[in-house]
């Protein structure tokens, strides 16, 4: 064993070196903590607080959502070693049984709830606050019965300009790839360890974007009131049996609220980016593989990427819409208007990660999770599979995320292999007038059919469009001749719960749009 | 901020009278402006404390950029140890003109009963102040600097202007938030005969140091606060005065916050208690947006 001795001179040098390093490092560390972001009040306008005045119940729910977001981040940051039950049971129960049931009267001061998180990442907090202001101001515009649709369009444009006047806070209005959210080194940790809470956040986001749709498609004040009530009721329905009944994918605005996304695409993209970054921050905070000393830097990096117009950008707005469609609205909680009584059955396991082509938005396969019984899985067995998946995933999710629990499946290749069979099956089904009527009565299926036709090659599209039009005429004729059900939803529910017996195709269907495809 | 000369050393005995809001056109106009604000709603914040609402020590944050905050008739009632009651009201408007910066204008209005000398009512100066927040709190506390000048305008104002500078720090913990304020006032000691001024909304001193703690109930949008302050009157020979106060701020609606508080001056010539009530309405600047 050797003993090292140091002379006083050497010790002095070492101390001087240490002091020098400390002096050099200290200002840098202090500079990293010197933050000058600031708050800004929302755009002053006559429609301010109109949503609060007209839709008090929904408005208060949003106040409660503020609490949910804040307590989530605070818990993840301040109690990293707490058991998952701290969020999954205690906070979840408190939120769903107390805060959401008796939501706060006024918007909350999140800095008073997420004290430590606000000190960790004040810039990200300000980004969220600024985007939430845009959220609320657009509700106000759409809720204002005094404004014509053209005036509303103008006001939304003005709000977007105001929002973008803070480039230090504004999310990009270019659609971001899901790679930024789901395929980073820290990704998936939150959804795996806290499936219920993650699903609750997705349900929040479903309502936050979904509520635009009844405000937009309702043509009268009464219709808007009724639509908002129905959409809020749907949100509550999602909380019935978590996480099975909660969204299984991040709700995308183009899928949940297609009319809003069509009319105000820029705002819809901003909100998708906002909700995506919510998930990213949850993952960074929840993932032990990101050292605590790195979390602020990772959050700042993610925030920069969500603000800029160049990182992880999809090729086009069309690609963003395609991506939303391929993710499946049934996996996001379903559409926010004109839905059936029952929640849609997801077709992927909880929190599955789809890979998409950033140029087209088309799904390439799954890198995590699995399809549940394929696209036809709408039964109880599929639902059971869904319910069983998240807790198992959660148990082994502590620490680094599993980048690929199941290797990606080239779904499109697989689908192509069965394309001819699928088409044949489709045509035989469409030959049945009962199925046709049911399809036309279900707006989600109807929309899916239209979108499918739009995606067809031009040489086939015209023919199929004619078929769809014929089916719509047929459905309209049937509706005008048949007695109307008491309500649209109850009628749809009845149809859904009592499936008609399959009938043989009629020998001479007078208005069969698919007659030409029959063998 | 709300500071104006109220009770200068070498004053004649403190006015044995009451100060009350005058029925002046200025007060009426301010009140009308505030009430008319419902047509232009915006958000105010119970969490962003302001000097005098309800305690003297304030936090290190300015009002939001482009926000206009109207302090609607903040009322203060004092009772000195001699049993004399004094009333004061100081309408204020604060504007977030620049990032992290607010400019504030206060109009301390006074009604003074001077006993045999009669009663006087009027403006006790104009209080102009600027507060600039230096940083948002991280591991580093939030810091701010403020400058304030009381302009000798009005029948009850001092005969000279007084300027002050102030430093503010705020540190937040999950269980409480702490604020430290230190203030220094420039200017000569007032000569004998400088009026008994103002309504006692706050007192200008050679220096003041204060520490406050507040606790928030975020789901109720309620903040409870308490403070201890030590101030040295402008007259060098006067003793430093210890005071304590407590109060609450409450968000009444998205755009209106109310406050109420009280306190006690433990030492000095003017021991006694005070209570204060007020409300603030916040608007956005009606123009621009870029």
Task: Name the structural class of chain A.
Answer: mainly alpha
Tally of separate helices of chain B: 1
**Which quaternary structure do these chains form?**
heterodimer
Integer tally of domains of chain A: 2
Distance between the termini of chain B: 28 Å
- The CATH topology of chain B turns out to be Porin
Q: How many strand segments of chain A? A: 2
Number of helices of chain A: 24
Order of helices and strands of chain B: HEEEEEEEEEEEEEEE
Structural class of chain B: mainly beta
Strand content of chain A: under 5%
- CATH superfamily heading of chain B: monomeric porin ompg
From the alpha-carbon coordinates, what is the Rg of chain B to the nearest angstrom?
A: 18 Å
- Strands of the biggest beta sheet of chain B: in what spatial order? 1-3-4-7-8-9-10-11-12-13-14-15
Number of domains of chain B: 1
Global Rg of chain A:
26 Å
- Give the overall average pLDDT of chain A: 81
Biggest chain contact: A-B, 40 and 42 residues
Low-confidence stretches of chain B: 1-44, 193-202
- Let me know the largest β-sheet of chain A: 2 strands, antiparallel
- Rounded to the nearest angstrom, the distance between the terminal CA atoms of chain A is 91 Å
What does this protein structure show overall?
- The complex is a heterodimer of chains A (519) and B (290).
- Chain A has 24 helices and 2 strands.
- Chain A is globular and about 100 Å long.
- In chain A, 60% of the residues lie in helices and 2% in strands.
- A two-stranded antiparallel ribbon of chain A has the order 1-2.
- The relative contact order of chain A is 0.09.
- The N terminus and C terminus of chain A are likely disordered.
- Chain B has 290 residues and is mainly beta.
- Chain B has one domain: Beta Barrel (Porin), CATH 2.40.160.
- Chain B has a 12-stranded antiparallel β-barrel.
- Chain B is globular and about 50 Å long.
- Classes of the chains: A mainly alpha (519), B mainly beta (290).
- The interface between A and B is large, with 40 and 42 residues.
């Amino acid at each position: 064993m050797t003993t090292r001795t140091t002379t006083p001179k050497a010790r002095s040098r070492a101390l001087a070196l240490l002091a020098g390093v400390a002096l050099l490092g200290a200002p840098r560390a202090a500079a990293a903590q010197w933050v000058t972001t600031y708050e800004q009040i929302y755009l002053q306008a006559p429609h301010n607080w109109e949503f609060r005045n007209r839709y008090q119940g929904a408005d208060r729910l949003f106040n409660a959502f503020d609490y949910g977001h804040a307590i989530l981040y605070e818990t993840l940051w301040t109690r990293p070693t707490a058991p998952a039950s701290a969020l999954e049971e205690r906070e979840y129960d408190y939120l769903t049984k107390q805060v959401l049931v008796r939501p706060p009267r006024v918007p909350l001061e999140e800095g008073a709830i997420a004290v430590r998180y606000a000190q960790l990442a004040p810039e990200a907090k300000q980004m969220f606050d600024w985007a939430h202001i845009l959220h609320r101001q657009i509700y106000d515009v759409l809720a204002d019965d005094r404004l014509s649709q053209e005036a509303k369009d103008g006001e939304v444009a003005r709000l977007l300009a105001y929002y973008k006047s803070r480039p230090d806070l504004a999310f990009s209005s270019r659609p971001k790839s899901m790679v930024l959210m789901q395929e980073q080194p820290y990704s998936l940790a939150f959804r795996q360890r806290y499936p219920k809470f993650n699903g609750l956040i997705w349900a929040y986001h479903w309502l936050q974007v979904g509520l635009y749709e009844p405000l937009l498609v309702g043509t009268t004040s009464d219709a808007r009131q009724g639509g908002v009530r129905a959409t809020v009721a749907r949100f509550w329905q999602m909380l019935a049996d978590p996480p099975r009944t909660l969204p299984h994918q991040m709700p995308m605005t183009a899928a949940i609220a297609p009319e809003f996304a069509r009319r105000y695409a820029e705002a819809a993209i901003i909100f998708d980016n906002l909700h995506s970054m919510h998930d990213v921050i949850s993952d960074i905070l929840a993932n032990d593989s990101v050292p605590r000393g790195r979390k602020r830097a990772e959050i700042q990096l993610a925030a920069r990427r969500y603000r800029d117009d160049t990182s992880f950008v999809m090729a086009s707005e069309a690609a963003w819409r395609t991506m939303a469609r391929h993710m499946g609205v049934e996996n996001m909680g379903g559409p926010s208007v004109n839905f059936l009584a029952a929640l849609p059955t997801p077709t992927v396991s909880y929190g599955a990660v789809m890979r998409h082509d950033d140029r087209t938005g088309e799904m390439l396969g799954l890198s995590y999770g699995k399809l549940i019984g394929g696209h036809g899985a709408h039964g109880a067995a599929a639902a059971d599979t869904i319910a069983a998946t998240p807790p198992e995933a959660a148990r082994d999710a502590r620490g680094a995320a599993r980048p690929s629990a199941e290797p990606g499946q080239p779904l499109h290749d697989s689908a192509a292999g069965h394309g001819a069979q699928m088409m044949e099956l489709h045509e035989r089904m469409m030959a049945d007038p009962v199925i046709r009527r049911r399809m036309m009565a279900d707006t989600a299926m109807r929309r899916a059919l239209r979108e499918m036709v739009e995606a067809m090659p031009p040489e086939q599209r015209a023919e199929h469009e004619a078929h769809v039009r014929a089916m719509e005429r047929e459905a309209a004729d049937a509706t005008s001749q048949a007695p109307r059900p008491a309500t649209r939803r109850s009628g749809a529910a009845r149809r859904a719960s009592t499936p008609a017996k399959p009938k043989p195709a009629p020998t001479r269907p007078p208005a069969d749009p698919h007659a030409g495809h029959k063998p | 901020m709300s500071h104006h000369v109220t009770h200068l050393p070498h004053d004649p005995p403190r006015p044995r009278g009451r100060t009350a809001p005058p029925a002046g056109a200025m007060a009426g106009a301010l009140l009308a402006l505030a009430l008319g604000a419902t047509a232009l709603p915006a958000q105010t914040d119970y969490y962003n404390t302001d000097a005098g609402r309800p305690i003297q020590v304030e936090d290190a944050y300015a009002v939001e950029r482009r926000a206009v905050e109207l302090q609607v008739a903040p009322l203060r009632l004092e009772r000195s140890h001699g049993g004399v009651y004094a009333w004061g009201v100081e309408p204020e408007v604060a504007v977030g003109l620049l990032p992290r910066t607010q400019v504030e204008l206060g109009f301390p209005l006074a009604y003074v009963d001077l006993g045999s000398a009669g009663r006087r009512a009027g403006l006790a100066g104009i209080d102009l102040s600027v507060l600039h927040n230096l940083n948002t709190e991280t591991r580093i506390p939030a810091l701010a600097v403020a400058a304030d000048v009381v302009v000798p305008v009005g029948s009850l104002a001092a005969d000279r202007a007084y300027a002050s500078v102030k430093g503010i720090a705020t540190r937040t913990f999950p269980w409480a938030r702490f604020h430290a304020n230190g203030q220094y006032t420039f200017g000569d000691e007032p000569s004998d005969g400088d009026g008994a001024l103002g309504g006692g909304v706050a007192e200008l001193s050679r220096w003041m140091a204060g520490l406050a703690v507040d606790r928030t109930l975020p789901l109720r949008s309620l903040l409870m606060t308490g403070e201890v302050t030590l101030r040295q009157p402008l007259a060098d020979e006067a003793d430093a005065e210890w005071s304590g106060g407590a109060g609450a701020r409450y968000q009444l609606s998205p755009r209106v916050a109310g406050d109420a508080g009280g306190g006690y001056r433990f030492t000095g010539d003017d021991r006694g208690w005070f209570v204060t009530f007020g409300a603030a309405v916040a608007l956005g600047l009606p123009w621009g947006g870029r």
